[in-house]
Amino acid sequence: MRADVFLVDFGHAATRSQAQRLIAAGVEWRLSASSPWQKVVKNGDDIPAIAEVRLLDGAEAKYLSRGGLKLEGALAAAQLNVTGLRCLDVGQSTGGFTDCLLQHGAAQVIGVDVGHGQLHERLRSDARVVCVEGVNARAITPGALQQDCELVLSEIIEEVEDNETQPEAPYSWMRNGGLVDEEYDDSDDAKDKDIENFRLERAAKAKARAAGTLPVERRRRAECADINTTPLFDVVVGDLSFISLTLVLPALVPLLAPEGRLLMLVKPQFELQPGQVGKGGIVRDGALYAVVEKRIRDCCAEQGLEVLAWLDSAISGGDGNREFFVFARRSA
């Protein structure tokens, strides 16, 4: 079995990409306690299904993605304790930040992402997590976020239509071979127009259903009855790509509780002009980091955020770029 597939299938890694990072950090296997350890050199190396495996550096497996390690370092550097707090994770993706927050005691994490189907199943099935997909962080509003959360937590109440049931036909006096006794009352018999209206109503519903315009009724799923969707958070974290934080912060500030904390990953390559970024999207001029910091600090000030710290990320970006965290607080 391929080494990266083995690590995922036997629970050592959550994803193939995480398994590959573990292999780069060092993985060994052996068939028995008396056998020598064999080093896995590349992702495609074969590991027997019955083998015992050990990780030489298991840090990569601590969270669902290496983003969790980045946030862990930032939480420690900022001395931010999230125990018991409600958090918003912007750019949730696979869920590295969400996983880190939960492992550090967060009471709830609502995550938003522009993509679909990226969040790991372990988090998707966690009652403390609400995953809202298809949302552009730049366009978030408190009302829309709460509505989106309700959609995620709700189910559609299907209208049960009995197509066999029709209004009682007119001329029911003709039943029983036309024999009608003196007590028969035909005042409740449907008239021709009632039958026609019924047909037209059914046809209109069928047309609206086919067009996707038929109003639907929703209700919270029973297991989600107690989940809080209030769009006001103690902590907002985020890891976004291909957009400047200066375009996103104005939408995030209204979601922060008074004196709420914001801890966002800053990727300089997305804060600079194309001419300032080198080949492969790498920022090679160290002097530009100060430009990025000033730009983010100025934006925070404009949005009523007090910058408490500008932090180096404990881990560089996957492309080798140096990254930072901005740690800020909303005014009371």
Structure in words:
It is a single chain. This protein has 332 residues and is an alpha/beta fold. Helix content is 29%, strand content 20%. It has 9 helices and 12 strands. It has a 7-stranded mixed sheet, with helices on both faces. A 3-stranded antiparallel sheet has the order 2-1-3. Strand 4 (86-90), helix 4 (96-103) and strand 5 (108-113) form a beta-alpha-beta unit. Helix 1 (3-9) crosses helix 2 (16-25) and helix 3 (67-78) crosses helix 4. The longest helix is centred in the middle third of the chain and has 20 residues, at 192-211.
The H-and-E topology, N to C, reads as: HHEEEHEHEHEHEHEEHEHEE
What would the average pLDDT be, to the nearest integer? 88
Report the major sheet.
7 strands, mixed
Q: Give a count of the beta strands, DSSP E runs of length 2 or more.
A: 12
Radius of gyration of CA atoms, rounded to a whole number = 29 Å
Order of the strands making up the biggest sheet: 6-5-4-9-10-12-11
Which term fits the overall shape?
extended
Task: Report the structural category.
Answer: alpha/beta
Distance between the termini: 57 Å
Number of DSSP helical runs: 9
Strand share of the residues?
A: 15-25%
Low-confidence region ranges: none
Bin the helical content: 25-40%
